[in-house]
Amino acid sequence: MIVADLDASTLARMTIRPSPVHEVIGWLRLIASGDRHPVYGRANASDRAALRGPDVSLVAAMVAGGGYQPDLLTPVAGCGDVQTAFGDQLDAVAAADQAQSATEVAWWSAGRPAPRRVRDAVDRGDLGRLAARGLAAARRAMGDRWESVTGMLERSTHEAAATAAREGVGAVLDGMHRDVRWTGGELRIAKPFDESVRYRDQELVLSPSVLTWPRLTVQVVHESRGSVVFPATAFGEGRHRGGGGGLGELLGSSRAALLRDLDVPRTTTELSARHSLAKATVSHHLGALAAAGLLVASRRGRHVDYRRSARGDLFLA
């Protein structure tokens, strides 16, 4: 377990902003693993083709699987809009300290030989530069998904910030993931190892994420600026699970209406038109409903159809 002791000054400096580089890494991990995302489904052949580029495959090799990934790939998100933040993160990756990068690759490989292309990049001292180039190429290969993802990120960031304003930052810390618990002075994060860290007037950035769902990514142990990246669907209308007042009060009126409308398969575009909602907003709501097990997604050519699950039917009964 990681135990982070946070003082009042750290809590006051805590910010909530998206980390675009985590979305690119989440997308690469989905392609490499073949896992199914609740909103975007499984990767197709054109997605997998993106991994053939040498720089993209270099990054994909370091992020595949569910364990530690070198921290040089995920610098803490800065301020500004999503595009500006992504550019700043790429600059930070390219400028990563060579000695620290070599140490992180050693941690990542955990005693086993690292892939040849990774070892060669470390030996040449250009791992950061190649990784930044690979992340930029992967972002371009995401195509129209990027607009949808960034729309959901902006909505989730706003919702988390609203939660902090309404209920205090402790509500955000305690509600972001099942593996995180806020005790009022300590942030306790379930991990298969023990580590303690003290934050004294330091910055801790909380970043909602769409494509790393349901993964929790934590960089607090060796960082002067720490970060916690949590599933974007943790907040907003779907966060409130208690007390009755009807389906609309439980889910929020938009999500309730969408769930009722999914007795037959419908696409994001169709739902957007039927409910007069932006596509990014519909995608965000569908992600939350899927995360709750209330709907299922199936790919039909280039389209993804959504329909209520058996659990969703019972929820409406």
Explain what this protein looks like in three dimensions:
A hairpin with a 2-residue loop joins strand 9 (295-300) and strand 10 (303-308). The chain has 317 residues and is an alpha/beta fold. Helix 9 (145-167) packs across helix 10 and helix 12 packs across helix 14 (279-291). Helices cover 49% and strands 15% of the residues.
Order of helices and strands: EHEHHHHHHHHHEEEEEEHHHHEEH
Largest sheet strand order: 3-4-1-5
Q: Percent helix among the residues?
A: 40-55%
Average of pLDDT: 84
Give me the secondary-structure category: alpha/beta
Hey, roughly how much beta strand do the residues contain? 15-25%
Alpha carbon gap, first and last residue: 41 Å
Count of helical stretches: 15
The largest sheet, given as strand count, sense and whether it forms a barrel, is: 4 strands, mixed
Radius of gyration using CA atoms only? 20 Å
Low-confidence spans: pLDDT under 50, at least 5 residues? 234-246
Shape call: globular
Number of strands: 10
Task: Write the SSE topology.
Layout: E1 2-6, H1 8-13, E2 15-16, H2 20-33, H3 45-49, H4 54-63, H5 82-94, H6 98-109, H7 116-124, H8 127-141, H9 145-167, H10 169-175, E3 180-182, E4 186-189, E5 195-199, E6 203-209, E7 217-219, E8 225-231, H11 247-251, H12 253-261, H13 268-275, H14 279-291, E9 295-300, E10 303-308, H15 310-316
